[in-house]
Amino acid sequence: MLTVEEAQARVLEEVPLLEREDVPLGEAHGRILREDVRATADVPERDNSAMDGYAVRAEDIANAPAWLPVTGDLPAGTMPSSPLLSGTAIRIMTGALLPEGADTVAHVEITDGGRDIVRIDHSLGRGTNVRRRGEDMRSGDIVLRSGDVIRAGELGVLASVQQRTVSVGRRPTVAILSTGDELIDVEKPRVPGKIVNANSWSLAALVTEAGATAQPSGIVPDTREATVAALERALSCDFIVTSGGVSVGAWDFVKDALDALGAEQKFWRVAMKPGKPVVLSTLRNRLVFGLPGNPVSCMVSFHLFVAPGIRKAMGQSGVLTPPLVTMPLAESLSSKGDRRTYMRVNVRADHGGLHAHPMRAQGSGVSTSMIAANGLAVVAEGVTWIEAGAPVDVILIGPVTSA
Ligand code: AMP
Ligand code: MG
Questions:
Q1: Is the CB–ligand 1 distance for residue 293 below 6 Å?
Q2: Confidence at 338, pLDDT banded by 50, 70, 90
Q3: Nearest residue to 118 via CA among 56, 171, 27, 177
Q4: From ligand 2's centre to the CA of 91, what distance in Å?
């Protein structure tokens, strides 16, 4: 059986890099940049003021307090019309370009705020309160790299360099098939023995969170023919994610159907709990992830295998598997110890650090244990008990919250 790390490496080897496309800046949020971006000008374009106050020469206020005639006003966004003459001050606002001759800004707090004559109470080192030309970006420098995720900070920089269209990785389309004769759609009345198809909803959300486009493709009955037909229809997508039907049950047809279609199995079964029966196959240049049906197994295996694959396909650089952080366990945990186990925890920032609070129920069928689960505590094979307060490795699968 493969280890989780081996299976993750296999996924990343098999995932193709999708082509790139140009999108308007307004649609670039959350996408993966696929070009290096250079600054087109120095930012700031010239030395400018970091404070509201008075543009001066440091030497003119060396013997503070100093009284200087105010010869003009420089609001932000205007060009200085005349140089600063020795022994004078120009009132200046944050962001306004420094007039020639000025080398320092006396912030308004150390002055009397005078309009005709200003009193400056302290001397300042030359360059105080001045933002230097090119301090943020230098013309021609690479400021963003291919493979970067475009979030708020990156969008601001793209706008600053006037990049109106951006080359990004195409979002993969992901077909979601939920197999199981026991499944009914969410809007159907309850029937004894049937359960609502919850996985399609969770998987669609996870696909979207990973940056891809989800195509929920309904419930697939537990027959080889229906599974073959559903997989064939799903081939219009870049990836296919199935839930259920990958175990060794008499009605588990996903692997049979993949075989019937001539798919090449890359792995089946990973040494982990929950999620052991996960399958990876390639089918006519498409990747098929066969995830187990238990809601927890399904989501855990998505985080560990599918999400990194989606990031790779879009061209994200760096480590693509979710981050691992060591933190104290808030309450003790027990595990069977038969396989490496991923226990759901809520990671909260409290007492100045991160703490992992385990969910009470840890069964792979307990869907409510995924509520607020933003971490998976990794409990090694052979370990059956971890005491509260002991350090534990946690894979972060969602944003950390405050206590
Ligand atoms: P399977 O992997 O097909 O053996 O499914 C294991 C268990 O997961 C089933 O007995 C169901 O209780 C549950 N399950 C399977 N598919 C879904 C689904 N789409 N939504 C919610 N639970 C499911
Ligand atoms: Mg099933």
A1: yes
A2: very high
A3: 56
A4: 74
